[in-house]
Write a structure and sequence with these properties.
Length: 198
Amino acid sequence: MKSEKVKNEKVKREKDQKQGAGKERIAAVIAAIVIVVFLGGSVFAGLAGSGIAGKEKSRVSKKELEKAGISSDSEEESNIQVLALDKDIVISKDGTASDVSADTSDASSDGDYIFPNSDKEYLTDADVSGLSKDQLRIARNEIMARHGRIFDSQDLKDYFGSKSWYSGTISPSDFDANMNSRLSAVELANVEMIKKYE
């Protein structure tokens, strides 16, 4: 009887151990499923957020598009992709690129500045680093042109002469001799910032 009792207890323990192992396996499978669902959801959310899983809303405002000369209500909107507003390059779906930016002679007649607020706001590396050497030269000289500096260089004479806001009244030597008193601290700092990249 004792041996039968011991045997029954042993069988019962083995049965309990098997049931416990089965529960552990079920818990492990459920945990694996939760992890797979979580990772899958994270990957899908990442793809959806980057525009791969669906059409991404433009991060370019209508105002920026209009400034670049691209109508956001255009019938061809689905056929173009704006690559860079500072260069106004447009690539159609067939892969052809066109530069729709105005060259400096066209831009000079409409009164625009390269840096409209360079007399009031400090320029940053990000503002300046993307410009060509010619654009930097014009941007630096436009700070002085606002104060009436006359230019010796014919291309600068032509460029600023076509601006509605420009009135050259101060000779280069007089202006340069008193530049620190003619320009504000912001303007002087911006001239130095531009020179750093020029």
